[in-house]
Amino acid sequence: MSRSSVALDNLRAFVILVVLAFHSVLAYLDFLPAAPFGFNEPPYKWRAFAIIDSSRFIGFDLFCAYQDVYLMSLMFFLSGLFVWSSLTRKGAGNFLLDRLVRLGIPFALAIILLMPLTLYPTYSVTATDTSIEAYYRHYIALPFYPSGPQWFLWQLLALNFIAAAVFRLWPAGLKRLGALAAAAASHPRRFFIGLAAVSAIGYVPLALAFTPWDWVQFGPFSIQESRPLHYLIYFFAGVAIGTTPLDRGLLSPDGKLAQHWRAWLAAAIAAFFLWIGLTALTMNQNAPASLVVRFAAALSFVIASPAACLATLALFVRFAARRIEVAASLSDNAYGMYIVHYAFVVWLQYALLDVPLFAIAKAAIVFSGTLLMSWAAVAALRSIPLGSRLLGERRAVAKAS
């Protein structure tokens, strides 16, 4: 395994830790209302904040704001990195079959089995009748099927279908995209500028039309209205980077991106505070922001997002290009943990509602409990054939295949 691949392995471990931490602290954000959102009340804001605790810590608001800037963009980018190699090895048909099994079936199982189990605490905190029968009636009466974090799976599956179609119908297009991305190895700033510019075209008009925060849902398929093209762009940026060997491209541990990690980290911090400052100007509902301010805030997002992504990549290819056993195990189980973790988060937050602890202590308990239980659950599931097929084989088996 190349040093770049090891660094990405460690990065996957880091990303799942951040995802777990992000969801673990959502109940304790300072800006949330005092009372929980009603289960039957549109616009069903409990989809984002399943539990609301009276303990608060404003530092969690800053943490979540920073993750909102880049985390999902980075996840779509990482998901695209190995698409080209999979397509060339398997062909479009087998590639899509594999994606349907690995993404489609877990998505369906999570919607049907996992989300009803997850959301009982959300229902019970505002319900007058907390019986399972009453919960079932209210659940099926919802005008959609709650998907929780699983929205990422169906959007990723859709992007894989698009990539397979392009590969089948216009393979030269992906090669040309890869050739453009290959120049990023020696000129990361050009890659940043290109990614920000293309993302601006896809994101800014939608953010102005729908606001940066609105979601729409059709059945089990939810989507953030301002970001579908933004995520598509990051996914195909990953596909393009992945058309060349990783250790000789943008993600080389000896490349310019890694060498200038300090500059990228400084740029990420500066861009984040630019975004948060401009976004704050748009949040006053008593005096709606002008079009110019909203445009500037949307534009600052497409600057902050690639800056944070590239800073994170630079740090990992520079400092984490060696194997760490715990990180390797966590990376192996990361996909399954993403699927199951939200149930543990919600139930642990619910269990701690009346416990007299500070928000930081509660969040730490939720995070550590979710980490251990989701890690153990996925490791157990992957020990059986069906779980291994859906969530990935254990590392020793995968190397031999």
Give the structure's gist in a few sentences.
The chain has 401 residues and is an all-alpha fold. It has helices at residues 3-25, 58-80, 83-118, 120-124, 132-141, 151-169, 171-182, 188-210, 228-241, 256-259, 261-281, 291-319, 325-351, 359-381, 385-391, 395-400, and strands spanning 215-218, 221-224.
How would you describe this protein?
With 401 residues, the chain is mainly alpha-helical. It has one domain (3-400). It has 16 helices and 2 strands. Strands 1-2 form a two-stranded antiparallel sheet. A hairpin with a 2-residue loop joins β1 (215-218) and β2. α1 runs parallel beside α13. Residues 396-401 have low confidence and may be disordered.
Write the layout of secondary structure elements.
Blueprint: H1 3-25, H2 58-80, H3 83-118, H4 120-124, H5 132-141, H6 151-169, H7 171-182, H8 188-210, E1 215-218, E2 221-224, H9 228-241, H10 256-259, H11 261-281, H12 291-319, H13 325-351, H14 359-381, H15 385-391, H16 395-400
Antiparallel strand pairs: 1-2
Helix pairs in contact: 1-2, 1-12, 1-13, 1-14, 2-9, 2-12, 3-6, 3-13, 6-7, 6-9, 7-9, 8-9, 8-12, 11-12, 13-14
Labels describing this entry:
mainly alpha, 401 residues, globular, 16 helices, two-stranded antiparallel sheet
How many structural domains can be distinguished in the coordinates?
1
Mean pLDDT level: 93
Percent strand equals under 5%
Oligomerization status of the protein chains: single chain
**How many H/I helices?**
16
General form: globular
What is the spatial order of strands in the main beta sheet? 1-2
Instruction: Note the run of SSEs as H and E.
Output: HHHHHHHHEEHHHHHHHH
Distance from first to last alpha carbon: 15 Å
What is the C-alpha radius of gyration, as a whole number of Å? Answer: 21 Å
Helix fraction bin: over 70%
Which structural class best describes the helix and strand composition? mainly alpha
Unreliable stretches: 396-401
Quick one: how many beta strands?
Answer: 2
Main sheet: strands, sense, barrel? 2 strands, antiparallel
